[in-house]
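Appendix B. Raw example, untouched.
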Amino acid sequence: YSPDGQRIVTGSQDKTAKVWDADTGQELMTLKGHDKSVWSAAYNADSERIVTASFDRTAKVWDADTGQELFTLIGHDSWVASAAWSPNGQRIVTSGGDDKTAKVWDANMGKELLTLKGHEGGVYSVAYSLDGQRIVTASQEYTAKVWDANTGQELMTLTGHDAGLWSVAYSPDGQRIVTASYDKTAKVWDANTGQELMTLIG
């Protein structure tokens, strides 16, 4: 969804993303430019731009009103599994799949600012904290890691799953992190201490 609730953006294996009217379901535009499947698509906070992440090892930024491609984020050595905006819209974080890194980019110029290195397995999901000060990454090595979003310093590792992680998110107040794993569970963690708070099984 766009933050204003007016539109929905979807990614597809047909190498495109599409924008839809959230009330009527009408297709409004198609974002064409990737060479392979689009795995992730997200609006920025003011609903003016979209970022897409693709199996073609790139992410792209688009004008959300016109569908014009603005620039391409090039630097990962593997497919880009996930992309997320910082809350203020000034930065984008991408996960580089099997290159085992995440990267932080200037969202206005497309310049690479930081590479988050530390995982020993593929990185398939990324998220910003609500205040934009931290990034969490989820990896196939069974862990998630929390990073300083400004310096790229690794702050803590969330350990407890028995299989690779596919998805991660912060709670709206930024106090908790939830991870989802191939071990058929989700876990909730204290975002400040890294302590495991609960396991969701079912």
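End of appendix B.
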